[in-house]
Amino acid sequence: MGAFKSAINSLSCFQAALVLVLLIAAAETQRAEAQSSSSCSTELSSLNVCAPFVVPGSTNTNPSSDCCGALQAVHPDCLCNTLRVAARLPAQCNLSPITCDTN
């Protein structure tokens, strides 16, 4: 009987330790996601040097080296996720979908 209680107590300690490890892992994941989001915002804000190139009607045909450097510093996932979210905005605002020419 003593061995049974010892096994249960050991299992309970193991379960408690496992729960603690899972909670720490979840907290770290949330912290990393928050930092990633913050980092993405910072990366995107550096792209303001590209505005003269991307504004419709602009006569600038080539992006500046500052723009290219800023774009290179943006993580591809950050840029893709931002474009994906921006593409969904019209539907979320109850507007007609936008179709863009590729030219």
UniProtKB/TrEMBL annotation:
GO terms for molecular function: lipid binding. Pfam families: LTP_2 (PF14368). Residues 40-100 form the Bifunctional inhibitor/plant lipid transfer protein/seed storage helical domain. Keywords: Lipid-binding, Secreted, Signal, Transport. It is found in: Secreted. Its main location: secreted. One of its GO terms (cellular component) is extracellular region. It comes from the Eukaryota. PANTHER family: PROTEIN YY1. Plant non-specific lipid-transfer proteins transfer phospholipids as well as galactolipids across membranes. May play a role in wax or cutin deposition in the cell walls of expanding epidermal cells and certain secretory tissues. This is Bifunctional inhibitor/plant lipid transfer protein/seed storage helical domain-containing protein.
